[in-house]
Design goal:
CATH topology of the largest domain: Rossmann fold
Oligomer: single chain
Bound molecules: alpha-D-glucopyranose
Strand content: 15-25%
Radius of gyration: 23 Å
Structural class: alpha/beta
Low-confidence stretches: none
Number of strands: 18
CATH class of the largest domain: Alpha Beta
CATH superfamily of the largest domain: Glycogen Phosphorylase B
Largest sheet: 9 strands, mixed
Shape: globular
Helix content: 25-40%
CATH architecture of the largest domain: 3-Layer(aba) Sandwich
Strand order of the largest sheet: 3-4-5-2-1-6-7-11-12
Number of helices: 19
Length: about 475
């Protein structure tokens, strides 16, 4: 099969969220299974020179946006280590900005990206069997493929898959964007792209794709209902015949405590004493008393409300009465940044807050802590809990979306499990789940056993990449 995977971001080139981790690792896993797969992303100015040096321009052409005739350059990334072909779409007017998103013309910018990608297939004579688009930034691609196919047989047999990584971000713009896109108002209906008299790019992806997926089975169920549906539950239910959940994995080569160069002491299930040495390093770095027996609780996250920080705020004083240490790494809403700074001041020997993000440092936090908190309000899949488990750090999560599907709650009778969980979005349920974890921590043997189970749980792309390939195959003969 010939597959094209389109995303707005992909690691290691450019990353603001979990989408980039998936776009950076899933295509690789699919390639390893023997399929041909090409990745396409915009050439943002933030993409580092070390990558740009390896890019060659293969072609340029023009994209018509209303009366404008806009330049689209295609650059190919050439690196022997890379099995996946990567193309970048270049247009400095749209992609040379201070950040990736949040501009007055985001609608137009991503119309351009989507249309340029679809034109590129023909320009490069790269006729894919499957185009796999992701999140609102690529939501118009399934629609363009259908639209182009009306006038050009080249596009007739191309099938599209659309993956929702987060239903909350939808790409909603004034309807004028349709004229810029060159798309007929016949698509502007309730069953189509219309959304409260505006245009919704995510909805376009939902409606016009041949197959719709989301990043865990539980999230695929949840989004049919009001609480999780973000006002799209109706259209999701209308399209549920083609909706499936396929859980994300992580790249086990990058996240490997045995070989990770970002941590001072490599470790495995056979030498957990090195994990404790990482704890001491973490305590040094974060100015906390160095003691390998104190349980260290960590948070590595964007500091936004959907990650459950209101629950944490509510119980933090009570939790910090325990003999624990608490570390935070991440940036986000001012409200939560200030809250952690305040607690770091109030409990300077117990809580250490690092309001920035640094990949290398995050690996030390995963490796050096004991318990990882992720009490999200909703979580399509979640990646941090997978990394935490791989590094033997026990997740405490709320049972929603991918958290529910990837963390097996500890069973004190059978000792099975890989973490702790609670059901309701309630601060004391979170506190009790943490206290359960802290109680078990006191029993060194049982704790170590749980750590080993978490580290042995398999959350790489092995199974899910096969599920995607099967899904693609099922579309071919339709
Ligand atoms: C989004 C979701 C997260 C998911 C990621 C990758 O960031 O919020 O839950 O893991 O996408 O699919």
């Amino acid at each position: 099969m010939d597959i094209v995977y389109v995303s707005s971001e992909a690691a290691p080139f450019i990353k603001t969220g979990g989408l980039a981790d998936v776009a950076g690792s899933l295509p690789k896993a699919i390639r390893e299974k023997g399929e041909k797969i090409t990745l396409v992303i915009p050439l943002y100015s933030q993409i580092d020179d070390k990558f740009r040096e390896k890019m060659v321009k293969v072609k340029h052409f023009f994209v018509d946006l209303q009366w404008r005739h806009v330049y689209a350059g295609i650059l190919k990334y050439e690196d022997e280590d890379n099995d996946v072909d990567v193309y970048f779409i270049d247009n400095e007017y749209y992609f040379k900005r201070d950040g990736l998103y949040g501009y007055f013309d985001d609608g137009e910018r991503f119309v351009f990206f989507n249309k340029a990608v679809c034109q590129m297939f023909k320009e490069l004579n790269l006729k894919p069997d499957i185009v796999h688009a992701n999140d609102w930034h690529t939501g118009l691609i399934p629609l363009y493929i259908k639209d182009f196919a009306k006038g050009d047989s080249f596009y007739k047999n191309i099938k599209t898959v659309f993956t929702i990584h987060n239903l909350k971000y939808q790409g909603v713009f004034d309807k004028e964007v349709l004229s810029i896109a060159g798309l007929s108002f016949e698509y502007f209906t309730k069953d189509g792209i219309e959304y409260y008299d505006k245009v919704n790019f995510l909805k376009a992806g939902i409606v016009y794709s041949d197959s719709l997926t989301t990043v865990s089975k539980t999230y695929a169920e949840e989004i049919r209902y009001d609480f999780y549906g973000e006002n799209l539950q109706g259209i999701i239910r209308q399209n549920e015949y083609k909706l499936v959940g396929i859980v994300n994995g992580i790249d086990y080569d990058i996240y490997n405590p045995e070989t990770d160069k970002n941590i001072p002491y490599n470790f495995s299930t056979n030498n957990l004493e090195n994990k404790r040495k990482n704890k001491i390093e973490l305590q040094k770095l974060y100015n906390l008393p160095q003691d390998e027996n104190i349980p260290v609780i960590s948070v590595v996250s964007r500091l936004v409300s959907s990650k459950g920080f209101d629950l944490i705020r509510y119980i933090l004083d009570e939790l910090l009465k325990e003999d624990i240490q608490f570390v935070v790494l991440g940036t986000g809403d001012r409200e939560y940044e200030d809250m952690f700074k305040m607690y770091a001041w109030k409990y300077e020997n117990k809580l250490s807050a690092h309001i920035h993000f640094n990949q290398k440092e995050s690996h030390l936090v995963y490796a050096g802590s004991d318990i990882f908190l992720m009490p999200s309000l909703f979580e399509p899949c979640g990646i941090s809990q997978l990394i935490a488990m791989r590094y033997g750090t026990i997740p405490v999560v709320r049972e929603t979306g991918g958290l529910k599907d990837t963390v097996i709650p500890y069973n004190r009778y059978t000792s099975e499990g890989t973490g702790f969980s609670f059901a309701n979005y309630n601060a004391h349920e979170l506190l009790f789940a943490i206290k359960d974890a802290l109680n078990l921590y006191k029993d060194k043997d049982k704790w170590e056993n749980l750590v080993i189970q978490a580290m042995k749980a398999k959350h790489d792309w092995e199974n899910s990449s096969i599920e995607y390939i099967k899904l693609y195959e099922s579309l071919l003969n339709k």
